[in-house]
Design goal:
The protein is mainly alpha-helical and 542 residues long. The two termini are 36 Å apart. The protein is globular, with a radius of gyration of 22 Å. Helices cover 48% and strands 8% of the residues. It contains 21 helices and 17 strands. Bound molecules: 2-acetamido-2-deoxy-beta-D-glucopyranose (2 copies). Disulfide bonds join 359-388.
Length: 542
């Protein structure tokens, strides 16, 4: 799966399942009719953490960062990520040391001064014009460009302690190098937008610089660039970067061939041709290859409501269609509180299956609900959080699987009793890759409700991950969440472990620092200063 967008690795399996026809045909009207009244749902659990507990937990998560970072520096660096079992490095992200760039923002928030200084020095020396590996524009944008502009925003804003800390000019120069390196990276990549349509190529070699307009890209692949490229333009005053990203995005804001590309209002197909910007298919959803396109529609509005109003309108279309056509209530004991969102196939049939990747959706609906001051999205978002929580709470390991389903007609016979009890079943891929999405949604749910139940859930997830994924030199992906011990240790510490999992966990417990000062999460009526990119890098809003 090397090279596929992060949120897209599950897609091949998904496609195969589609083709086998594992789809339950449900009329959309029926689905809508099954949604229970949700107005009544926003109660406080009454759970409150004991004094000092949040600080204790924040410290435990900081310790996990230091443990992971030490392992990476000892065995992984200068490669992209640590392979903690075989004690070496892996280069799955272009080979510029992805964990350093993906990790710096979290280290800044944790105020790990020495680590930040080390990371800044490494970043200042990267040569972004050279790369022997295939480059994914999507991954490079969200991890590297997002990581650098975010660290620049943090270190020139609320975390200017670094510049002020005695080393004066030297540290000032290191922080400035973040912006210089962001420009260098974007300048090295920007030729990839020079296709016939202006939709960039998903993958390319810097050594070849060959435009392939006969390629295809997916909507997450080119619909998840606009925040990072726009921030770079706003920081430098040079509009070329945002112009490139916005031009590509136009094909998603207004679909050229909606009869194929827009099966439900605002919900799109997946793959788009680079030569003319037309959609090739009608399947999709909030999982792999679609996910962060929808995510950024509302986040661009958070970033600048003047410039990105159309994006917000497009998000509302997608959100409303999701509520109308994709909502599904599993037949579980706790069904009155939870919802799942299905995926759609070429025939608009809704398949009752989901993925860990798509579990960011609860948090995204909560962000939309807060920004638009619309309770219906908040309530819906909390129910989605509850659904994804079930996929963690019901497993022996305490961690949710990569894929799951809840179609009563497709329950594997070996899982009949599991399904009877829990209302969902494991869906083919049962590993855990240190992904953040469920915890990310807990974070947003906690910011919106201030109900400590979401902190309890986040802590349970951390304790489970710490128990099953921790190794002597860092943390690893595991093969089987249906076993209490997590099965085999799969030997990869993804860079998003630093960027996302540890950051959302830290922020949900850290009561000082930026959380109090600047409100990284959005609180209605209080003013928002930051928005997370899809890699959890906080970007200062315009
Ligand atoms: C884009 O491609 C055209 C030819 O297709 C070429 O003339 C032009 O110089 C290219 N622009 C950039 C910025 O590479
Ligand atoms: C995490 O695991 C380490 C090593 O087993 C242990 O010392 C530590 O107490 C654990 N932390 C939590 C919060 O469970």
């Amino acid at each position: 799966m090397y090279g596929l967008p992060r949120r897209s690795r599950a897609v091949l399996m998904g496609l195969i399942l589609f083709i086998i026809g594992s789809t339950m045909y449900l009329k959309s009207e029926n689905l809508a009719a099954t949604v229970p009244p949700i107005r009544s749902y926003f109660p406080h659990s009454g759970i409150r953490l004991a004094p000092g507990e949040a600080q204790f937990r924040a410290d435990a998560i900081r310790e996990a960062y230091v443990h992971s970072w030490s392992g990476y520096m000892e065995y992984g660096y200068p490669k992209d990520e640590l392979l903690p079992m075989s004690k070496r490095g892996g280069n799955s992200m272009s080979g510029w040391g992805a964990s350093v760039i993906d990790g710096i923002g979290t280290a800044v928030l944790m105020e790990l001064h020495d680590v930040v200084e080390q990371q800044l020095r490494i970043i200042s020396e990267i040569d972004y014009t050279q790369c022997e590996h295939q480059i994914s524009l999507f991954e490079t944008t969200i991890r590297y460009l997002g990581g650098m502009v975010s660290a620049y925003d943090l270190l020139t804003g609320p975390y200017s302690w670094f510049i002020q800390s005695g080393k004066g000019q030297k540290n000032h120069d290191l922080v400035q190098s973040l912006l210089r390196q962001s420009v260098a990276l974007a300048d090295a990549l920007k030729w990839s937008f020079n296709t016939t349509s202006g939709i960039p190529m998903p993958f390319f070699m810097l050594s070849e610089k060959r435009i392939k307009s006969e390629d295809i890209n997916n909507i997450a692949g080119f619909g998840t660039l606009v925040l990072e490229w726009t921030r770079l333009s706003d920081l430098t005053g040079d509009p070329q970067y945002t112009n490139l990203a916005q031009r590509a995005q136009e094909y998603l804001l207004k679909v050229e061939n909606p009869e194929i590309g827009e099966p439900f209002p605002g919900l799109l197909g997946t793959n788009v041709r680079l030569n003319d910007g037309k959609f090739l298919d009608s399947y999709g959803g909030w999982g792999a290859m679609g996910d962060s396109y929808y995510e950024y529609l509302i986040k661009m509005y958070a970033y600048d409501p003047q410039r990105f109003r159309r994006y917000m309108q497009r998000w509302i279309q997608a959100a409303d269609s999701t509520m109308t056509y994709l909502t599904s209530v599993p037949t579980s004991a706790h069904a009155s509180k939870m919802l799942f969102v299905g995926e759609y196939s070429h025939s608009r049939a809704v398949a009752l299956r989901g993925s860990h990747l798509a579990c960011f959706i609860g948090g995204n609906f909560l962000l939309g609900g807060q920004l638009l001051d619309n309770m219906k999205y908040n309530i819906y978002g909390l129910k989605l959080v509850e659904g994804c929580r079930a996929t963690y709470a019901d497993t022996p390991s305490g961690i949710g699987p990569e894929r799951f389903g809840w179609d009563p007609n497709l329950v594997p016979s070996s899982q009949k009793s599991f399904f009877e009890k829990n209302g969902w079943y494991y869906g083919g891929e049962i590993d855990y890759r240190l992904r953040p999405e469920v915890i990310e949604s807990y974070y947003h749910a906690w910011v919106v409700t201030k109900d400590d139940i979401y902190r309890e859930w986040a802590w349970e997830a951390f304790v489970a991950i710490n128990r099953t994924c921790r190794t002597e030199h860092g943390f690893t992906s595991i093969s089987d969440v249906s076993r209490a011990d997590g099965g085999r240790k799969d030997d990869k510490q993804e860079s998003f472990w630093f960027a996302e999992v540890l950051k959302y966990l830290f922020l949900i417990f850290n009561e000082e620092g930026i959380q109090a000062k600047e409100r990284i999460g959005f609180v209605r009526g209080k003013g928002q200063k930051w928005v997370f990119n899809t890699e959890a890098h906080p970007i200062r809003i315009y």
